[in-house]
Design goal:
The protein is mainly α. Helices cover 59% and strands 0% of the residues. It has one helix and no strands.
Amino acid sequence: MTLNIFFFSITFKKREVSLQEAVRQEMVENLYEQNKDRQISMHRFM
């Protein structure tokens, strides 16, 4: 009789975001929201 046992260890580490990355991410989110609003307004216009 053969018994095969596998052990996996998964660790999660919080990634630290630099100030530049945070500012860039915020800018991207704002641009995304602006484009989404623009698409919605054009859709209502048609």
